[in-house]
Amino acid sequence: MNEHDVHTDPGALKDLTDAAAQTHLEVAEDGSPKSYRANRTLKLRVELARQIRRRRTQLVLGFLVLLPFLLALSFEIGQSNPNRRSGGFVDLATASGINFVVLTLFVSGSFLLPMIVALFFGDTIASEASWSSLKYLLAAPIPRHRLLRQKAVASGLLSVFALALLPAVALAVGVTWYGAGEVVSPTGEAAPFGDGVLGVALAVCYISINLFWVAGLALYLSVSTDAPLGAVGGTVLVSILSQILDQITALEDLRNYLPTHYAMAWADLLSTEIDWSEMTKGVCSALIYGGVFTLLAAQKFVRKDITS
Amino acid sequence: MLTARSQQTAHKVNEVSRLPRLRGRWSLPAVIVILALAAGIVFFTRTGDDPVPVPTRDAVIDVPEGPDSTQTVQIDTTLYLPQRTPAPAVLLPHGFGGSKNSVKTQAEELARDGFVVLAYSARGFGRSTGQIALNSLDYEVRDAQKLLDWLATRDEVQKDAPGDPRIGVTGASYGGALALLLAGVDQRVDTLVPVITYNDLSQALLPNSAALAQPQGATPSANAFSDNGVFKRSWAGIFFSAGMTNADTASPAGEAPEPGQIDDNAQVSTPTQAPQEAGQQGQNRQPARPTDACGRFRPEVCAAYTEVATTGKASAQTLELLRKSSPVEVADKITKPTMLVQGEQDTLFGLDQADATARQISEAGGQVKVVWYAGGHDGGSPGTQLRKQISDWLSFHLTGKGTDPGTGFEYAVQGAFRTNGTPSLRTVIAPSYPGLSGGAQTERRDLKLSGRPQLVVNPAGGNPAAVSSLPGLGSALSRSSSISSRLSVDLPGQAAVFTSDALDSQMLLTGASSVRLRVANAPNQQSPEAVLFVKLYDVSAEGVRTLPGSAVAPIRVALPADGNPTDVSVTLPGAVRPVESEHRLAVVVSTTDQAFQNATAPAAYQVSLAADTISVPVVPGTNVTEGAPVGALWGIGISLAVLALAGVIAMFRRRLAHDEDPSLASVPLVISSLTKSYPGGLTAVKDLSFRVEHGQVLGLLGPNGAGKTTTLRMLMGLIHPTEGHIRVFGHKVVPGAPVLARIGSFVEGSGFLPHLSGAANLKLYWAATGRPLSEAHLDEALEIAGLGDAVHRRVRTYSQGMRQRLAIAQAMLGLPDLLVLDEPTNGLDPPQIHQMREVLRRYAAAGRTVLVSSHLLAEVEQTCSHVVVMHKGKLVAAGEVGEVAAGGGEATFKVDQPTLAAKVLGDIEGVRDVHVEEDAVHASMNGVPRATALSALVAAGIAVDQAGPRRRLEDAFLELVGGE
What we know:
The complex is a heterodimer.
Chain A: H1 10-22, H2 44-52, H3 55-77, H4 89-92, H5 97-109, H6 112-131, H7 133-139, H8 144-178, E1 183-184, E2 190-191, H9 193-210, H10 212-224, H11 228-247, H12 277-303
Antiparallel strand pairs in A: 1-2
Helix pairs in contact in A: 2-8, 3-8, 5-8, 5-9, 6-8, 6-10, 6-11, 8-9, 10-11, 10-12
Chain B: H1 2-23, H2 27-47, E1 56-64, E2 72-80, E3 89-92, H3 104-112, E4 116-120, H4 140-152, E5 159-161, E6 164-165, E7 167-172, H5 174-185, E8 189-195, H6 201-205, E9 210-211, H7 233-245, H8 265-284, H9 299-311, H10 316-324, E10 338-343, H11 351-364, E11 368-373, H12 384-399, E12 409-417, E13 423-430, E14 443-450, E15 454-458, H13 474-478, H14 481-484, E16 495-500, E17 507-511, E18 514-521, E19 529-539, E20 545-546, E21 553-558, E22 566-571, E23 575-579, E24 584-590, E25 603-618, E26 622-623, H15 630-655, E27 669-677, E28 683-692, E29 697-701, H16 708-715, E30 723-728, E31 731-732, E32 743-746, H17 758-769, H18 778-785, H19 800-812, E33 818-822, H20 830-845, E34 849-854, H21 857-863, E35 866-871, E36 874-880, H22 881-886, E37 890-895, H23 898-907, E38 912-917, E39 920-924, H24 930-939, E40 944-949, H25 952-963
Parallel strand pairs in B: 3-4, 3-7, 7-8, 8-10, 10-11, 11-12, 29-34, 29-35, 32-33, 33-34
Antiparallel strand pairs in B: 1-2, 2-4, 5-6, 9-22, 12-13, 13-26, 14-16, 14-25, 15-25, 16-24, 17-23, 18-22, 18-25, 19-20, 19-21, 19-24, 27-28, 27-30, 30-31, 35-36, 37-39, 37-40, 38-39
Helix pairs in contact in B: 4-5, 18-19
């Protein structure tokens, strides 16, 4: 019999029926097999394995590794004065390794980072729905709230990893190219390298929290549609819209209610005397938006009829 | 048939795609409600502090034109009334160039805080008549006293004694000086808050910060105030022209930033306020075009200005006039509580002016509180918080209400720039203003300065000149004080630089530093005096220079004719500046400055350090723990609490959801009165009830759209039933019910991760259930799928049949007690279909139960022991396959003469319901053997082609399928 044939060996049938005849599952009080525990379903390790093996995840992480090299390369090709000590983030990028990290975060902060978070969260349920594998996971059964939670946590871990990976690679690239010198802020203040690393670490923490609203919205759209592209694209669209509205100064302090308004507040961490008020407001805004969307997502997913 | 099938499928796809929209009906209202709530909160917070209108009374009050004059001047006033009267009064004079309308905002605020507020246009301003005498004790101050008399006659005003109203005075700049002057001459004033004003106008306009002797330096910002100052021509010009045209160019344009202020409020509020004020001024103002070169100034004031502006020096007469207009004359008689508010961004009236006033009042025994805020003539008028602080001061000292504001010293520290473009601000509070009578002296730090003697050149005509600030424009620039403080330009050859060592730690410079300089004529030069401008820069390690407050200290040093040097102590401009570690201080001595009247004669001087230290005042204090955005912190706390609460509530609701019927514990499946209808009227399953017993292979038969898949989805907990319920082994099926772990399912197509191999998919799927791998019987299941080595290829590459087989293998993982397969033979070829039937039969035989759905009758007949027939969501028939197929004793005869045959059969006793269908006759036999009927037919001469049980199932089924 050819190995490439699709064919059930009669022996296999006997094996199966023998196994079935011999096995009798012990049943627990709740009607499930004794070995089943709801809180053991879809462990994080399993979900991460499912996600990390995806080409999409690998491409995104690969791109984040590549981006600092591209930036460094463009500074090499273009005209730049490595000894500049004043100017904006871009002008200062080559002042030190930390300044390079700051530039990397600055240029990716408005679009790339929200998009990555939107990708991990928006895709997580919707792609399972589009593969039809969602119904089998739910019938396994993985309780819906647990499925949502485990997937959200896995997406969160991937997002935080991605958000930390970018500055980490940028730091390595920056230190290699521009040295471990003092970080220079656009106001001309200089801080030692160590303080700069701490500042960037805090900035990554802040960005992670601030993007919670993106995560919440993407999750909500992910449970609302079976099209992963719709969930991711919709979230990115809202983020862009919010950034556009934030440019309209005529809106005055109404802009403070836009979810992206405090997206760049982490730059306050670069000064010697840190002003926390903007970041506190940013955290508050992100938690409220993210919390509302997450609760909506949970409510919608638990009550939803799965038809994919 | 094929066409019919594809139409069916199309119909189904439509139906499915419509469902999510229908089901989302609760989410949309929820989103709308939340948006509405958010909008409501926004609306509330924005309109909650909508001001209550304040009643006002306009009055024109006649006052004597002068000390010995019988003529009168009309003072245009507005009285703002609080909600409750009588109340203490506040006199609110305006700044130079303004009118009673320029203080409207503050007047309304104070009235809302419970004061009767009298705003008025000073003589020579607004609609008031008369001429400007520069707050002269003989003119403007007497006017104000008349206004106090008038207030004492008003019923709305609370009185200390007849003719003595309970009154506070507050005003900015020109108005602040009036407050001081009035309080100095009139004991009826109970408290005062002069804001950004002068102590000595002659020193403000003609400052000289050099003294031969060492300065006292008990207070933080004491200036020597030496005679023979350098004319501050830019500001003086602006000041004078403001009086000529009544253009409010001398007052700060916007509000100063405040700690914790949100974003760009200051910037936003300015444009909305300014046009309104301009409009009101436009109505009230006298024709702005001056009638002569003196405008509305008194002749002696005009003459004095002309003298100074043309010669750069002031005569004794002019100095006398200026002094008579200055609080310095009377401030040593003020004994009432005074809050002095001075700006850190003020090149017109610097911190030294308030310092001098504070010393005078303190010596007179008055209670003094000093506030330095991040504004001034260059940086903006007091913001909302500071105005509230002023109101609180007045309230405490006029009514005794509120907490005692004390006699501390507060100063604002501008820090780094934030992302929103405004600098971070904090307020530091010291227990008292140091150096006042009875208090400790100001702490001073001596930093070592170094720099060799340097030659500086004064160009002929004093041009080009160094730039330190742009008076009048300052307020516009100070919005971006990063620009203004770095605007300063020193011209090469004109400036000597002395630099300190780099600081070890941050030092908070608070007040006026002082240095001792040695100035001499350069060799072969014979200037009788030197005019120099001394600045103190904060220089970062990178060399970025910042000039705090944009201020310079002008000095005029007499040089002996013998060429010997003169040593002078220079008081540098008062400032607040956090000098970071690694930064240096640089003292720059320049020969020119654009804001001042430079020496016109060409000259060269040798400038060196007379002492190699700079004495820097430091006032330790505590940071006001403000700045924490309380609302945001509450928001963070509440949202975290709500999320946690939602989690806990959901957990408890899940705990209570379990429902079990022990009597059905051995029955694999019981469906009772199951109904699923969608909003919009579509009912997919209607009142469906059946049960599946242990060991059965049950076929769920029905055409496409009969509701089979919907039923199976409800069985898997994917769809919520509208009514009725499903019990599996006695446990009610809800989404995620644990009993679902005993069901293996394959419903409506396979679902695999396309990027993984078949084997990896099955392994990960089992891993997701959290059960041990030993229970999975993975190898047996994979053998059933029989994919050969394709099992290690990505699922993406599989054919439809291969996916189908893998999906069935997945359903069999763990050898479930109930196996549910939806159309399992779709996409399989005939030998595979045959094998599949065998698998299902033998699996059931091994002690399990199997539920198979199909739209093919033959399929069910060959595979299943029992059948449930569904059509349009309803149960049509149920029972053993043979029994249902037999149709309950009906028979069918195929004959050549159907009509005759029907008649013959109808005549047989017991046979009923005879009807003809083409060449077939159906009849209900009711126990009559078919053989009897056959012989009757044959006897009647009818040729019988076929006789057998009526295949009712097939008929009904074909009819249903065909009829669609």
